[in-house]
Write a structure and sequence with these properties.
By secondary structure, the chain is an alpha+beta fold. It is built from 6 helices and 10 strands. Strand 2 and strand 3 form a beta hairpin.
Length: 172
Amino acid sequence: MAKNPNKPSKAKKQQPGGTPATVALTAAGVTYTVHAYEHDPAHPSYGEEAAEAMGVSPERVFKTLVADVDGALTVAVVPVAGRLDLKALAAAVGGKRAAMADPALAERTTGYVRGGISPLGQRKRLATVLDASAAGHATICVSAGRRGLEVELSPDDLAGLTDAVLAPIGRA
């Protein structure tokens, strides 16, 4: 049975300063850059805060959202500059209806807190859809697994590690 690069061993999880997301990236041998910034709890948007703090275009910073598609939790990764199109998400995974998942359920299932949910290193591997706009960038930024920490990597690497489907699920 092949080792799942998205599910690091317990020994690797305990590396100082690492998150399950960065441990998964390191274990997979993927090139990435970590960007840390001081999180402001009063900021109204985690994603916009990350883009501003890093000085990166909001079109290159992607937020990780968890939705319920026909009873199955599904991860949607879309630019912070836009919104998730729930109908498009459902269609991308062959479903009929999608709604945002209960935040507490999303946290329990992924192992991350809201505002720090990463598409990588989740406690339970979920179907993942990456907005097609990601393919237009050499690198994108996603949460590294906690508020105030982002990881920059190629969209191809992200899609490969999460077995993501690329589909137009974002809207302005």
